[in-house]
Amino acid sequence: MKVKRANRIEFTSISVPTRLFKKVEKHVENTGFPSVSSYVAFILRTLLSEKTNKKADYEAEIIKEKLKELGYM
Q: What residue spans define the domains of the chain?
């Protein structure tokens, strides 16, 4: 019998300039993150989330404008 395990997160590597890595590494020391990788993953998720939220806000404005034009608002 096969047991399904929870979805495992797969990882990959991203190359960044060494100088940038060193700067991030120093910054991470004061954040409580366990590694540069976990910190960078957090920053990327945050940035992508903000972009998604901005797009959703923009789309909501367009819908509101269309509803006003149609006399629903």
A: 19-69
Calpha distance 36→18 (Å, rounded): 12
Per-residue pLDDT of the chain (73 residues; tens, 9 = 90+): 555 556 788 888 889 999 999 999 998 998 889 999 999 999 998 888 877 777 777 777 887 787 777 787 6
pTM recorded for the entire structure: 0.60
CB 36 within 8 A of CB 25: yes
Tokens of 23: 């700067």
Position of tokens 């923009």? 58
Among 34, 32, 36, 37, which Cα is nearest to 12's?
A: 37
73 neighbors 64 (Cβ within 8 angstroms): yes
CA angle 3, 6, 9 (to 5 degrees): 130
